[in-house]
Every structure is written in structure tokens, then in C-alpha cells.
């Protein structure tokens, strides 16, 4: 992505400030994961220092991205799903918008508000693409930063096309990214958190965690059918959290949010204590685990 994106944007008339775009397979700044809060935080600082209008980060092959608005706010990719849904529904009124179970409650709320049909499905771009053969969604988005513009582009993820689509929408509306995001319902949200768990233990551990959550939260809405696939999503009117095991590596994924800070802090404390109670968790490996402190 670093070798392609800057010159491409210049061809579109953008003024570009490059940061860490030289190819270096040793990754001296660490894993280039746009969903890592350290990467996002670095980008936020650089946007403010340079007084940029928007900031983009990419993974090495450019199929995923992260964004920061002109105020330095980190915009997690489920909120970007909501932004893209707003744009897509202007071109394709009433369309189905597909997203995965890790996404904010705000995504469904925005899709309904703008006249679309929300469809939530399990994590994993291969599962989403396969399901879309049936659902025929105009757009698919994941918290990880995979976006599929199925009605307007090829049915595969492309972070660079996603970037250009967002810039096109901002140009057409004449608004900044923070202005575009302002009507989206606000939740205090964690990033996507990954905690280590050996492959041979993660499925069994998820079974234990699921049973414990149902015991501790008997009155909440639970989604643990085929829509969840490898975990469970728990929802109240003002909050949600997801715990699942990864199909791709030795870890569990956690995401949680709430309308109010008090409820968010209570969720964080509960989840942290829950995970620390299981010896199967390997705290030596993870992404964004500081979000549980």
C-alpha cells in the first residue's frame, strides 16, 4: 500500500503527507495493523501535527484500512461501515447492507434510519462473501477494515478503493469526516481486542465463557446461532459485547460498547475479570489488550 497509495492520491489532486511508506519487510514500527490502537494513535497525532484533513493507514497488502478525522478522532471501522451505508443507500435506496457481529449497534440504527435493510452475519470475509451469494447485499463491511462494494465494484475487499470511495463521498457532500459522522449514534466503544488462546483450547474455552455469560446475564438478548458462528453477541438497549474465537489464529476476539461511561466501565471490568479467571488465556500475546485495563 505504501508504494501505491501516495502517487495514486496525487493523481486525484490530493496534497499528500507520507509517513512510513517506504517498503521494509522488517516492520521496524511493529505489525502494520490499522485496527491496532497504537497504530491508530500514531496516525491521530500525525494528523493533528500536520493539520491534515484526514488520515489513512493500511495493512501491507492494502486490503484493509484505518482512518482518523481532521480533529484527530480515531474512527473505528464499524463506524466507517455506517458511513458507507449512508453513501450506498443514497445510490441504492432500500438495499441490504451486510455487516459482522463485531460491529456497533449504531450500524443497524443508521441502516434502518436511511431506509436500508440490515443483515448481520458471522465474522470472516469468506463467510460474508459466501452468504452474499444468497443475500445480494449492496455493501458488506467488517470491523477489521474489509469492505466490499458489491453493487458498484467487484465482490472482494480493497482498502484503496474504500479510501477513494470515502473521499468521493466527502467531496460530493462538501463536508468533513467529523461532520459526516455527527448524525451517527454515539457509543463509547472498545477497539477490537485479541487475547491469546491456543488453538487446541479456544473452542472449549468459548463454550465455558458462553455458559458463564448466559448465567450472569439471563435477561439480555443473546445471538449465538449461525449469525454468530464461533461466539456470541449479547445486547441490551444501551450496550453490547461480543466474545468469539478466531478462525485464523490462536486467540479470542472481544468487542464491547455502551451509551454511558459508567456502563462501559462496568462491562470492561466484568470482561477483564472474566478472562483473567481462565488459565487457558495467554496474556503474553494480544492486540489492544490495554483496553481491558
TrEMBL record:
What cofactor is this protein dependent on?
Mg(2+)
Q: Tell me the Gene3D superfamilies matching this sequence.
A: Alpha-D-Glucose-1,6-Bisphosphate, subunit A, domain 3, Alpha-D-phosphohexomutase, C-terminal domain
Instruction: Write the record's keywords in alphabetical order, separated by commas.
Output: Isomerase, Magnesium, Metal-binding, Phosphoprotein
* InterPro entries given in the database record: A-D-PHexomutase_a/b/a-I/II/III, A-D-PHexomutase_a/b/a-II, A-D-PHexomutase_a/b/a-III, A-D-PHexomutase_C_sf
Q: Which GO terms describe its molecular function?
A: intramolecular phosphotransferase activity; metal ion binding
Biological process, per Gene Ontology:
carbohydrate metabolic process
Per UniProt, residues of the Alpha-D-phosphohexomutase alpha/beta/alpha domain are: 1-72, 78-186
- Entry keyword Metal-binding: yes
Signal peptide from the UniProt entry: none
Q: Which SUPFAM superfamilies match?
A: Phosphoglucomutase, C-terminal domain, Phosphoglucomutase, first 3 domains
Cited PANTHER family: PHOSPHOMANNOMUTASE (PTHR43771), PHOSPHOMANNOMUTASE_PHOSPHOGLUCOMUTASE (PTHR43771:SF2)
This protein's name? Phosphomannomutase
Q: Which species?
A: Candidatus Nealsonbacteria bacterium CG15_BIG_FIL_POST_REV_8_21_14_020_37_12
